[in-house]
Amino acid sequence: xxxxxxxxxxxxxxxxxxxxxxxxxxxxxxxxxxxxxxxxxxxxxxxxxxxxxxxxxxxxxxxxxxxxxxxxxxxxxxxxxxxxxxxxxxxxxxxxxxxxxxxxxxxxxxxxxxxx
Length: 116
Prior knowledge:
The chain has helices at 18-26, 49-54, 63-72, 74-79, 96-111, and strands spanning 6-12, 32-38, 57-60, 81-84. By secondary structure, the chain is an alpha/beta fold. Strands 2-1-3-4 form a 4-stranded parallel beta sheet. Helix 1 crosses helix 5. The chain starts with 5 loop residues before the first strand and ends in a 5-residue tail after the last helix.
């Protein structure tokens, strides 16, 4: 029987640059099912309890994204694996440097078993 795909939820602030890029570059990866969301009410897709419940692991870009989950979704915060990539909001959507940084950091945490 095939192993089920790991469900990753990428989270940034407005879901337009970092998490949207991560979603795009990993959406066809056979290891993962991916979604993305933002913590701001102005986000393209706003983070919801349903998205958090769906995810096996939550990948946030900065400390304040993790704090947002802790403050607004305390049950999910306690129950979900949350990994921070330490990626500041300094990039444009699909910018080559952002793609490289995301690939390097996501692959690193995946190899180290931090997403399971």
